[in-house]
Amino acid sequence: MSLFPVIPGIINRLDSIGRKFLWQGNKERRGYHLGKWKTVITEKRVGGLGIKNIKNQSKALRMKWLWKYSNGNKNLWGSVIKEKYEESDSWMTKEVTTPSGVSLWKSIRELWNEFKPNTKIKVVDGIKTRFWKDD
Prior knowledge:
The chain is mainly alpha-helical. Helix content is 43%, strand content 9%.
């Protein structure tokens, strides 16, 4: 889930299993809905049960890779991504346009336009660092 986007059909099936478990338990006959699924997946601090929203969790885990790449973590994987897809600027690679095969970086890179507006750049002692904007 950290590298690949979760297929919508799988998300729907997992949510369906969770709803059935919470609303019906082990009953063979039809049970009653005791709460809205949206409330169940809301954070505890806001009044929900804190069950993870799989779609949002998958997106957040893939955005973590964008965060690591844009903050200059020069690991082996970052060097491989940089060489394979070329950088468009010092923060991100060019858009992935390969039509064939499964590209891990393509599914992660697609989130850049959503990720970038929620960050800001801070320069300390001549070193640029990307920070998440405060709400």
